[in-house]
Structures are given as C-alpha cells and as structure tokens.
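Q: what does this look like with NAP bound?
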Amino acid sequence: MADTNRQFVLGGRPDGKPDLDAFELRETAIPEPGRGEVLVRTLYLSVDPYMRGRMRDRDSYAEPWAVGDRLEGHVVGEVVASEHDDWEAGEFVFGRLYWSEYAVADGADLTPVDPTPENVTLPSYLGVLGMPGRTAYFGTLDVVEPGPGDTVVVSGAAGAVGSTVGQIAGLAGARVVGFAGTAEKVSLLEDAFGFDAAVNYAATEDHRAALDEAAPGGVDGYFDNVGGPVSDAVLTRLAVDARVAVCGQIAHYNEEGVPTGPRTLPQLIASRARVEGFLVSDYASRFDRANERLREWVVSGDVTHRESVVEGFERAPEAFLGLFAGENVGKQVVAVAEPSE
Ligand SMILES: NC(=O)c1ccc[n+]([C@@H]2O[C@H](COP(=O)([O-])OP(=O)(O)OC[C@H]3O[C@@H](n4cnc5c(N)ncnc54)[C@H](OP(=O)(O)O)[C@@H]3O)[C@@H](O)[C@H]2O)c1
C-alpha cells in the first residue's frame, strides 16, 4: 500500500468554462477505518457533467462544493481494510466517495460489484450499470415512452447516457436517431450502438435540414442531453403528442447567466408536446428493478457499452474537462489503480 493518499479539492470557482485552476491536488495520510467502516482503494473514478454545477455557489439539486472541499464522486474500488462485518479485504465495491486514491466509507453505504458476468467490467458499474444507465432507463421508459412506429431523437447520443437511451428506445421498437459531435461517433452510433441514423452536428449549421433527412416523419420522442442549437432544431420538428425528456443541458453548463430571447416554445402548441425535466434520483425506489434489467440486457448483448478510460489519478481534472470538449465515447472514467490480484 502507498504511504500517502492523494486527493483533489475544489481549487477555485470557475467563471465560465473551467480549467485546471478549479482543481487542487493535496497529499494526506491514508485514513484509518473506525468501527463499522471500510478503507476503499479507488480503482476507477467517475467524472460527470453535473459536477460543473457543484462548482458554482448556487443551490441546485446537487449541493455546491466550497473552495477547499474534497470533490465527491462515484468510485469502483477494492476493500483494503474492513471494520465492518459485511466486508472483507479484496472485495470489489461501488461507493459515493471522493476524488481520492483511498477513502474511508461507512460499510452500510457500499454496494458489491461483480465483474465476472459476460460483457460486465469493473468500470461498467460507473456507466451502463450505474447512475448513467439508470438515468437512460427511467428517462426513456417513463418520460419518452417509446413504442413501435415512433421516431426517437437523442442528443449527446454517443455519451454514457445517450448511447444507452438509443438502445433502450430501439428495444422498445422505436426508430432511433442520434446527434453527436464527430464523424467517428456517428459511425459508432450506427455500427455498434444500433442507431438507425445519426447526425454529426458539428459538420453542419443547418441542423433542421440534417434532422429532416434523418427523421423525415418528425420526432415522437426527444431525449435531450445537451440543449443549444441541436435542441432548437429538434423542438421545431415535434410530431403531435411528442414527449421530450429534458435530462441535461451541457451546452449551457458553462454559462453564468440564463439565456433569454426568441425561443421555440410556440412549437409546443401545435404539437401538443409534453416537455418534462427529470432527475434520476427521484426514481430511487425502483433502482433495484432497473439494475436487474440493465444487467440482463448487458449480459445478453442487447445493450452494449463503451468506457473512455483516462489512465492516472492525477489526470482526473483533464478527464472531467474533456466532457465539455466531447473527448469521451460512452462513459468517461479515470483508471486510478489496478486490482491487487
Ligand atoms: N437528469 C439526470 O438525472 C441526469 C443524470 C445523469 C446525467 N445527466 C445529464 O445527461 C447529460 C449526459 O451525461 P453523461 O454523463 O452521459 O455525459 P456524456 O454524454 O458521456 O458526456 C458529455 C458529452 O456531451 C457532449 N457535449 C459537450 N459539450 C457540448 C455542447 N456544447 N453541445 C453539444 N454537445 C456537447 C459531448 O459529446 P459530443 O462529441 O457529441 O459533443 C460529450 O461527450 C449531461 O447533460 C448530464 O448533466 C442528467
């Protein structure tokens, strides 16, 4: 075991687009677990777009971090010491812990991680089998409600949530169209994730024309991860009784003000569309069933997944900043350490 524990704290509040100044690396002693606690060594750390909101001094659904606070994050790790009856050294766990190499967790807050089933990996518990997978599951099935004959459009389609949304909507019988930011992502959507059509939004300014070609019959369901010009276009092409799930608005996360001006709301009148913001945490009472179904789909190969892995704990800030530059395909994780055996 290492002698010291490295961890990131909030180094400063970003103004607009964050850079490395938002992060400060500190070295501390490795903490010791007390009664009922477990020492976890981080193997994989998740970086997520919503963390940008926590860097702002404004209350939202996730509490803001203060400058100097330890950055929290989802972790897949290995138990290295346990003072809790349910856990032994060597077991793999998932926890809501910290951007740190080691952390002490309450043994009651950890969940087991089994990387042995077909198509399941340790980092997949941070993506398709974790919070992003459950977000895709509830936002698609409960909000978009796709069915045969529907066309569903997904923005941020090649990311952790979006790539899973498209596959779940496809399993429900819909025709699925994705928007993503590179030609490589478009190919991956069509070839690996089973989307029926995909658009590289960065290659054209005429998103409406691109959408008309990919979805000539209009849009029955829209799963929005990004906002911005892609959503402006999609909202003008909603079919009657369309359903829109507002999951994320990453195109706006680095804006300090609220944008105003002529918007697309008039389009909702003719389409009688339902636009619903949702938070995955509101579905906690149904997580067990969602986890079970997602796992079945992954094991059977009905839902495939990708992780983008940045190697090295010290590169976690870089991995986070890459989310806003579209550097990831599927779930962005940081590989912090190898399992011990
Ligand atoms: N409501 C909830 O409960 C909930 C839960 C989890 C996540 N979310 C939200 O869901 C969205 C997806 O999350 P994720 O974890 O799956 O992230 P992700 O999609 O894996 O990563 C972010 C992606 O967003 C795209 N992007 C970045 N800046 C953009 C811009 N200005 N315009 C258009 N696209 C941009 C990039 O892909 P391209 O190369 O395609 O641009 C990037 O790869 C985020 O907005 C997140 O905040 C919401």
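The pocket of NAP is lined by residues 48-50, 132, 135, 156, 158-162, 180-182, 185, 225-226, 228, 247-248, 250-251, 278-280, 323-324, 326, 328, 332 (CB under 6 Å). The mean pLDDT is 97.
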